[in-house]
User: Which sequence fits this backbone?
């Protein structure tokens, strides 16, 4: 399970509403091994933001 300090679902909705098309960054400070945690977090955010870009 991916847990995030930020409400990326809400952020994605807001960015879609204003037609944002720039870069989005991801910072990982989790307790999990970064080699596992970063790809999991990235995949979660990509899927989330793609859902709001349809």
Assistant:
């Amino acid at each position: 399970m991916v847990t995030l300090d930020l409400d990326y679902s809400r952020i994605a909705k807001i960015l879609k509403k204003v037609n944002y098309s720039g870069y989005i960054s991801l910072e990982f400070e989790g307790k999990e091994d970064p080699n596992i945690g970063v790809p999991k977090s990235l995949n979660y955010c990509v899927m989330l933001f793609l859902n709001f870009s349809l």
The chain has a mean pLDDT of 84.
